TrEMBL record:
<keyword id="KW-0812">Transmembrane</keyword>
<feature type="transmembrane region" description="Helical">
    <location>
        <begin position="37"/>
        <end position="63"/>
    </location>
</feature>
<feature type="transmembrane region" description="Helical">
    <location>
        <begin position="748"/>
        <end position="775"/>
    </location>
</feature>
<feature type="transmembrane region" description="Helical">
    <location>
        <begin position="839"/>
        <end position="858"/>
    </location>
</feature>
<feature type="transmembrane region" description="Helical">
    <location>
        <begin position="515"/>
        <end position="535"/>
    </location>
</feature>
<dbReference type="InterPro" id="IPR038766">
    <property type="entry name" value="Membrane_comp_ABC_pdt"/>
</dbReference>
<feature type="transmembrane region" description="Helical">
    <location>
        <begin position="380"/>
        <end position="398"/>
    </location>
</feature>
<feature type="domain" description="ABC3 transporter permease C-terminal">
    <location>
        <begin position="755"/>
        <end position="857"/>
    </location>
</feature>
<feature type="transmembrane region" description="Helical">
    <location>
        <begin position="796"/>
        <end position="827"/>
    </location>
</feature>
<dbReference type="Pfam" id="PF02687">
    <property type="entry name" value="FtsX"/>
</dbReference>
<dbReference type="InterPro" id="IPR003838">
    <property type="entry name" value="ABC3_permease_C"/>
</dbReference>
<keyword id="KW-1003">Cell membrane</keyword>
<feature type="transmembrane region" description="Helical">
    <location>
        <begin position="346"/>
        <end position="368"/>
    </location>
</feature>
<feature type="domain" description="ABC3 transporter permease C-terminal">
    <location>
        <begin position="295"/>
        <end position="408"/>
    </location>
</feature>
<protein>
    <submittedName>
        <fullName>FtsX-like permease family protein</fullName>
    </submittedName>
</protein>
<feature type="transmembrane region" description="Helical">
    <location>
        <begin position="288"/>
        <end position="308"/>
    </location>
</feature>
<keyword id="KW-1133">Transmembrane helix</keyword>
Amino acid sequence: MSTLTRKEQLPLVTARSGSRRASAFLARRSLAAHRRAWAAVFAAAGAAAALLGAFALVLGSLLSARPPVERYAGADAVVAADQKVSYTAKPWGSEPRTVSAYLPERVRLDRALVAKAAAVDGVAAAVADDSVPVALGDGTAATGRSWESAALTPYRLTGGRAPGGDDEVVLDAASAPAGTGPGGTVTLRAGGPAREYTVSGLAESRGGTPAPAVFFTEARLTALAGHPRTVDAIGVVAERGVSPEALRGALRAALPDATDQHRAVRVLTGAERGEGERVDAPAGRNDLLAMLASVAGTVVLVALLVISSTIAQAVHQRSGELALLRAVGASPRQLRSAVGREAGRVAATAAVLGGIGSVPLGFLMRSLLGTEALPLPVPLWLPFAAGAAGALVVALAARPVAMLAARRVTRLRPSAALGEAGGAEPSDPGRFRTVAGLLLALAGVSSAGLATAQGGQAAALAASGSATSLVIAVALLGPRIAEVAVRVLGAPMRRSAGVSGFLAARSGAAHTRRLGAALTPVVLVTAFVCVQLAATSTLERAADRQAAAALRADLMVTGPAGGLPDGVAGAVRGTPGVAAATGVLRSAVLLAHREAGEPVLDRLPVLGVTAGQLASTVDPGVTSGDLADLTGTGTVALGADRADGLDAGVGDRVELRLGDGTKVAPRVVAVYERSLGVGEFLFPREALADHVSAARDQAVLVRTDGTGPEATATALRDALAPYGVVRVGPATDDAVRSAPATSGQDDALVVIGVGVIGGFALLAVVSTLTLITVGRRRELRLLRLVGAGRGQLTRMLVLETALVAFAGLAIGTLVAAVPLTAFSVALAGSAPYMVPARYGALVLAVVVAAAAGTLLPARTGR
């Protein structure tokens, strides 16, 4: 084909320019004529942009978060062991993949590395830094450190001198008891009963703002720490003029690449030094990042679904107008372009305002997730970038959605379009939409079935995929579902509500597409909130029941957050009235395995117990083996579900990594069924004691001998008085739970997931129903003209609202029940459960939102 000449191209350019001008003219006129209809789209787009921008801000803040540098503020570098482990496996039909996870317990270094670090050129001092939990006489928690390590913060003496013997200490002036000074005495509890120490001096921090500290001599601190051959970390102070980069390079060249346990040796400088202080912070950040990213993915899906549904409904209400324009000569391209411009302008304006609103919303969400161990920074550029990202996603999504929604009408021939302009609303959603909806529904049910055969994360992912598929299927099959709902509920309405019921039923039957669009956001909010709340409630309820069934103790002894001092369990066993006592040491292990062929590193909380008297205090429901054999460092008891997953039984060995990364392969001596309550692994206490940051029991479970719990509790308080703030009370389920029911961050995620996203979904309910009601004003006026009274129309709208709310709640609950049942059966072995008050609050919120979206806009239409 020959190239067109310039003269031949000119008419084409002129035609295109005229077409664009016509589209722009139609868009401007339509925006002016349909302001109320586009208001609902404006609200949905603005809220979506705010929500997306807020999540982008929180995720960006979390990605840049690091533990604060406090304890090592005066150190130029910190030498510590790597806290991360990896696992490589070959998925089915793919290349090998590597996954990583952080260790929950501190990995220590060989003490010989202190001398090697001190001998490096450019190093002024290298100090071994260990710590032990300490309690002052009034119960105030503090950290025990060596006086040599005080230079790492740094601390400076404000009075007195450094400690010179095992019975002398230097106190942090900010936390020292009132009236205590050099030469005085102080009662401390560190690793045993209370003991008096002489205060040789007071010191104050000149660097960071660390936790209250008590400084011992190096020899005393090493004895209290209980690991003389290893150190927690090494703090390094550089000579004057040595840069951090040069110091890092020199230390890396002089120190070995790995520890004796094959853990990498890291040299931390700058902001990285905080990771040497709080080894659990990076792990917490990764866990929170994974959970928040999962919620953010749901947010994107919900936002796009709501925007698409709202814009599609707004365009569909104008199908008659578009058909008429097509009949009088407007080209399909002009109409699609006009609709796209219209939606794009509305969405762009709303997105800008939503992007601005995302900043305060993001800061609110950030305040719920930040902790002292991991504060969430906000770089200056982040709010602008996050708001712009949320606004951009919404603005870019609006135009193609609108053009796609107008595609059916704009493709009609002018003669057919003229008939369409005056015809009734089509109720058939189309073959493609119906087939796609049915396939997604089938995929959702299949995913739920797959979840019942899986465990752990695989079951959760399959259930989540099932819920997503079913919600989208409902959106696609909305008119079909609405038709069924009208058939089921229409007859009762006609019989019980007279004329108003007849009108409501006939209106629903004649406009199933409109009714389907109204049902979609109600189903969305119902299914989402039910899945979020019921999944947590189901697991917590099952775990509580199993923990309660496993508890045999009458009393328990607990202490401060750092754990009970050494010797408490022995003192409890020697108290009159005590028949059995079991110390409970908490830790975690990492299990490397495959789920659906993919490599997975699961971090699982575990309990370390003393088997001698365990049968009298804890009953995990042993199905095979004997817990009396749970002794030494090479045995383990295993939950039945995990045993099935690992294909392991009594006498087999399971490969695990303990909390500090040590690889072990203990022999299974028992299998039990209450693994949700007491955890999936039970270890002998001695197997964990050398692999935890602090080998301190979190509780001691006590079974009395029949003399009465009250009398035994009194005797225990007297016997444990030398150990300070130790509490004796009735035994509770939490004592045998392998992990707390919920954490502060878990609660924050529930607030964000249910409160923020659920609130957005409810706004979508109001916006969609408002848009539908605004489009019905001509219909309502016509009913008034033919004789319907205001009261009859009001009752009709109330009945329609009830139909939408009831059908949406029922379908949404059913959509949630399918994946929830699969999830509950797979992980809890029970039916799903949701707190009735929470479901009642959801029902109330949906009814109020439906009424606000239907009844309030209709007042001026009657």
